[in-house]
Automatic annotation (TrEMBL):
<keyword id="KW-0812">Transmembrane</keyword>
<feature type="transmembrane region" description="Helical">
    <location>
        <begin position="12"/>
        <end position="31"/>
    </location>
</feature>
<feature type="domain" description="Sulfatase N-terminal">
    <location>
        <begin position="35"/>
        <end position="404"/>
    </location>
</feature>
<keyword id="KW-1133">Transmembrane helix</keyword>
<protein>
    <submittedName>
        <fullName>Arylsulfatase</fullName>
    </submittedName>
</protein>
<dbReference type="InterPro" id="IPR017850">
    <property type="entry name" value="Alkaline_phosphatase_core_sf"/>
</dbReference>
<dbReference type="InterPro" id="IPR024607">
    <property type="entry name" value="Sulfatase_CS"/>
</dbReference>
<keyword id="KW-0378">Hydrolase</keyword>
<keyword id="KW-0472">Membrane</keyword>
<dbReference type="GO" id="GO:0016787">
    <property type="term" value="F:hydrolase activity"/>
</dbReference>
<dbReference type="InterPro" id="IPR052701">
    <property type="entry name" value="GAG_Ulvan_Degrading_Sulfatases"/>
</dbReference>
<dbReference type="InterPro" id="IPR000917">
    <property type="entry name" value="Sulfatase_N"/>
</dbReference>
<dbReference type="Pfam" id="PF00884">
    <property type="entry name" value="Sulfatase"/>
</dbReference>
<comment type="similarity">
    <text>Belongs to the sulfatase family.</text>
</comment>
Amino acid sequence: MKLITGNRIQAILRLSVLLVVAGFMSLGGFATEKPNVVVIYMDDLGYGDVGVYGATELQTPHMDKLAESGIRFTNGYASSATCTPSRYALLTGQYPWRNENAKILPGTAPLLIGTSQMTIPKMMKEAGYTTGVVGKWHLGLGSGNVDWNRKITPGPNEVGFDYSFVMAATQDRVPTVYIENGYVVGLDENDPIQVDYQHNFEGEPTGKDNPELLRVQWEHGHFNSIVNGIPRIGFMKGGEKAKWKDEEMADTFLEKAKEYIRKNKNKPFFLYYALQQPHVPRTPHPRFAGTSGMGPRGDVIVEADWCIGQFMETLEKEGILENTLIIFSSDNGPVLNDGYYDGAEMRLGDHTPWGPLRGGKYSLFEAGTRVPFVTSWKGKIDPMVSEAFVCQLDLLSSLAELVGSETRGPDSQELLDVLLGKSKEGREELVLEATSRTALRKGNWVMIPPYDGPAVNKQVNIELGNSSGFQLYNLEEDLGQRKNLAEENPEKLQEMLRVFEKVRGG
Ligand code: NG6
Ligand code: CA
């Protein structure tokens, strides 16, 4: 038998210490090389809806804490003033107006993202990540004529997500069920689901004809099938047991998001957590009903804020906060009356969901697309406020840089240093989109070309940005876009037009 010398014992000891440390690190996940990435995405949350962005009448302590732990961007944009195009741009890094189908989709729309298109989750997967989406999808499912009673494909799992737990479109659109990895959750095969956006199913009540069945009244546009006493857009029959409970949606998505983290904390993961608040119908859990004093719209923001607090607590408890980059934003600006009577306008008081900006959801004015935009990474990002000009479009290329991938999105700028607070050199320009109309921001200037159509959408009471002439605003002096400088400054207007045409044509 050979004697083990002192040196060898030391070497073995050193090696085992190393092995234990390595094992511990991979178990805890906190020191893996690749950081986790989480995108927390709100639906219709306005620039002024968050405490750190100036809200004083509404408390959002968890969103504030997240923003104060990292970078609060004051010039952060969604690509668009509505949901589907913004989500398309976020995931693909491509301007949504390059795809003529990137409009607010019905629940029966086919998958909008091509299965061969690059997406954030695909890029992350190629870089060794496991990927998941929990929450609102609204990017279409299937390839036309979906049979909701079989595997629904293609969908999120075919454009890069290993795991998906989603609602198909919006809370106000059928089908009102959750879909997990392509299958409707809790579906009873003896009660199949049928969905149609043109015709009702015989004998089924509607919001239009059966007001006596409603517990929430519609104001405009929501008068088809009734689910849980709430009239929706589109007709649906069957699937009784599978229908979601509106008041439990926030808890359901939160639980799935937490579960995803717990299950995947030992591998690098990308999670797209897409909350449904404060989109209509606003249905806070009874724990939150009445808490804001502003009616359901305020209550669901308080609810979402709590969810974010719980979610953050989970990251912390699981020991992965130091290894997780969190990006928080919203898909478009705020709207009060989006088709239901829920007192959002009447009970607003002094709250200004749009902050100092003009317009709101659907608008080419700033409040349509400029949204809360926060990055946070404990120990890696120093707290600050950044005026750098960034867009959700830029996440694909920037996250690619983060994970060592050479993939770039077609309209996505690599701004990782900006997102991590090492640089303030953001975008030069961005084409803004609102319901298929486009405008240009370049530097501190915004140019809106002439558009037909009403100046104000009276139903939602929002200025859309339409005008018969060119509009030109200098945001540095006029953040609220009150002084049109198009006539006063024809050179600037021409310069803006040239860039606009170049980007739009390219
Ligand atoms: C509109 C709906 C609105 C909302 C929106 C989509 C009507 C009259 N209005 O068509 O309530 O659902 O679509 O919002 O039907 S988004 O945030 O998903 O883009
Ligand atoms: Ca939205």
